[in-house]
Every structure is written in C-alpha cells, then in structure tokens.
Write a structure and sequence with these properties.
With 405 residues, the chain is α/β, with parallel strands linked by helices. 53% of the residues lie in helices and 9% in strands. The longest helix is centred in the last third of the chain and has 25 residues. Magnesium ion binds next to α2.
C-alpha cells in the first residue's frame, strides 16, 4: 500500500496512532496530579518494563496531561553521570522550570529565594555559576550547600515547590531511563521527594526504566516503597495487539483479517515496538484494502532484518567477544531468566569466572536481575536474535579478556 499513508510508528518514543492497553497508568497519573493540586498526597510511580514496551511513550502522555493541568514539566533522560554533572543538569532544568512558573519580571520573594537556593546548589561545582547565570541573585548560604546530595536536593525541591504553590501550579519531574542513576543519586531524589511529600508541596517525580530499578533504591528503599508504585508494563494481550494494528489501518481505509491479526500476535508476542515494525513492514507488502495473513507472513523477513540491523544490533555492537559469548550461551537456554551457574555451565566455565562479564552486561543495560542469582535479557526476543546472528556457540579464552575490545 501507499508508503505515504503508512500509519505505524516504529521509532523509540514515537507516539503511536493508537495508544492501547495503558488506561490504568494514565488514570493513575491523572489522579496523582488532581490529588496533589488539592494539597493531598498520593503515591507516585516508577514505570518498569523491558525495552520497546512503551515507557517513553507513556511518559510523553503524562507530559501532555501535566501540561493540560498547567503544571510545569521537567523532562530528563538520565544517563550515567558523576554527581557534579548530575547537579549541573538538574540545576539547569530546574532553573528553566522556575522561569516557566513565573517570568523573571514578576518574581516574588519566594522565587528569588528559590533562585538563590538553586545558585548555592551548583556553587560547589562551578563557583563562577555558569548554570545559574541569568538568575541574577545571590546564592543563599546554608541552603543547598551542605555538600550532601540528598540534603542539597531537598532544599532545592522544597524551595521550588513553595514557589510553585504560590502560583497555584505544580512541577512534575519526568525521568526516563532511571536505571542509569547511581544509587546515591536515586537515593537523594527519593529523600528529597519524601520531604516534599511531607510538606504536601505540588512537586512530584515519575520515572520509567528497566525492571531492576526497584532494587536500585538501596538505603532509601523503605521510603521508595511508600512514595512509589512500581507498575510493570509489558507486551499487549491479543485484543490490544489487534487494536494497535487495526485502528491505524482503518483510519487509512484498510483493515486486517482476523487470521492476519492472529499471525501478527504470534510474530510480535504483543510487544509494542515489534507491533509497530511489523505493521510498518506489512503495510509495505500488502495490496489492501484487506490485509491478509499471507501479507503478514510475507513481511516477516523484512521485519526481522530491520530489527536485526537496528534495535538488536545496536545493543550487541558495544559488546566484547566474551560478553557476546555470554549472551549467546544465555540464548541457548531460552528466553526466560537464567541462573548464573547454568549459563556458566553452557560455557564450560564457573560462575565465579564469569561474574565480571555478567556484571558488565547488567551495567550496560543488556541484562537485568529479576531475582537474586538470575539474569534476563532487557530486550524482548533477544534470545531469538542471538541464535540468528551467532549460530554457533563459541567461548573465547578467558585470558583473551584483557585484549578484547
Ligand atoms: N501503548 C502502545 N500501543 C501501541 N504502540 C505503542 C504503545 N506504546 C508504545 N508503542 C510503540 O512502541 C515503540 C516503543 O515505545 P517506547 O516508548 O520507545 O518504548 P520504551 O521506552 O519502553 O523502550 C514505539 O514505536 C511506539 O510507537
Ligand atoms: Mg524509552
């Protein structure tokens, strides 16, 4: 069919034509804002899920909702950073939020106070105050300059929350890829938010990340469990998968046969990103207006080739020979979480030998630990990809490690 009208959106974070299966999370977010606006407290959430299930898209919806409530949205895509860089990035985003809450010319004492606290927050890392330039206020001594990330961040969020409340507005921090926070950074955020909640200020934090995040909270774990729900999102069921494929097609005057929808569900396992890729590839081969099971089948090679060369490939490209062998050995055992000892056995090694490799893969975001002693792929269908792309199990000499890429 006409490539010009292809309605599917196979790109990270791309808002799909039909967002299906996320009503619960959208309703929770609505409730969260509505309650905070009334000075009530409500558990916030950290959405967890594998890659490609629609976490970023969901955060995008939250952003929309928040803006329609006149809230200020602070969006951060987290990456691994030293604390100083983390401070710098937070400060620059929060500075923008302050300006959004109220134009400079109309700043009250509370806003000038918040700006001063923000200035203190970055003073230790950049005495010249590059980030806070333009704030044109004096840093406030004794605020956000304790050299302790938790305490400092608490001062900042409280000051901004008070400014927001004065405007009758709120601030929502949307953090994507939260698994890249260091334990200390996440703890600091959780503790700051805890204080904000105690004061019933209109500031909240919603995160999204890979499933191991619930563990990462570390010492702040008991706070984290009170402050957040950790809803897991995953593949769509057969009915939602059908809607995700058929609704966009119908909007363009085409539709799927029942058999075609069944086939598509089998191929994609209901994973949103795979649905978009398969929908896209099928549109290209089908003549329409009815899209038949044969069209879906005919699209599978292009669909797999596309996934192999992009979504899967970018993850493997960064892996060393030994890391690749480890992933391949896991794939040999199947898609489910695997015990370290079992993977080691497939490789003819001990799990102690391979401990560092496993840790590296977790650190890179390729594996996560659903429970102690187990590891699983963060990308759905990664086992199938590994079997396709590395047909034979080859285990490099461990000694070659140092020389490996
Ligand atoms: N609820 C949904 N229904 C249909 N497609 C979706 C849905 N959520 C996301 N998608 C599609 O799935 C893909 C992955 O979404 P994304 O938010 O980037 O996933 P994640 O952040 O979890 O890796 C995108 O192509 C997007 O258009
Ligand atoms: Mg994402």
């Amino acid at each position: 069919m006409d490539p010009l009208t292809n309605p599917y959106t196979p790109n990270a974070g791309a808002e799909p034509e039909a967002i299906v299966g996320r009503d619960d999370q959208l309703a929770s977010f609505d409730l969260l804002l509505a309650r905070l606006e009334r000075g009530r407290t409500e558990q916030s959430m950290i959405i967890t899920g594998l890659r490609g299930v629609g976490k970023t898209v969901l955060l995008g919806q939250f952003r929309r909702t928040a803006l329609s409530h006149q809230w200020v949205v602070v969006e951060v895509e987290v990456s691994k950073h030293e604390d100083s860089e983390f401070r710098r990035r937070m400060a620059s985003k929060l500075r923008a939020a302050l300006f959004e809450l109220s134009p400079r010319a109309r700043w009250t004492e509370r806003f000038r106070h918040a700006a001063g606290v923000l200035k203190s927050f970055t003073l230790t890392i950049e005495p010249a105050g590059a980030v806070t330039a333009g704030l044109d206020v004096e840093a406030i001594e004794g605020m956000a300059d304790h050299q302790d990330l938790s305490m400092d961040l608490t001062d900042v969020l409280v000051a901004i929350g008070e400014a927001a409340r004065e405007q009758g507005r709120g601030v929502v921090l949307l953090f994507d890829e939260v698994q890249f926070f260091s334990k200390g950074q996440l703890e600091a955020l959780i503790q700051a938010l805890h204080r904000v909640v105690q004061l019933a200020l209109p500031v909240t934090l919603v995160g999204a990340g890979l499933p191991q995040i619930a563990e990462l909270a570390g010492d702040a774990k008991s706070y984290a469990e009170r402050l957040f729900k950790f809803p897991a999102i995953g593949g769509l069921d057969a009915v939602d998968t059908s809607a995700a494929l058929d609704q966009p097609a119908r909007a363009e005057g085409a539709h799927y046969s029942d058999k075609a929808l069944e086939t598509a569900f089998d191929v994609t396992g209901g994973y949103p990103y795979f649905i978009q890729e398969l929908g896209y590839a099928t549109w290209t081969v089908a003549n329409g207006p009815e899209i038949a099971a044969d069209d879906v089948v005919a699209a599978v090679p292009a669909y797999e080739a596309k996934l192999d060369s992009s979504f899967f490939r970018v993850r493997l490209d960064r892996a060393t020979e030994l890391q690749t062998a480890y992933l391949r050995a896991m794939a040999e055992l199947g898609p489910q979480p695997q015990k370290a000892a079992d993977v080691a056995q497939v490789m003819g090694r001990t799990s102690t030998n391979l401990g560092p490799t496993r840790a590296e893969l977790i650190n890179m975001g390729l594996l996560y630990t659903p429970e102690h002693g187990y590891a699983a792929f963060t990308v759905p269908h990664f086992d199938r990809f590994m079997l396709r792309t590395v047909p034979n199990l080859v285990v490099p000499e461990l000694r070659a490690r140092r020389g490996a890429r």
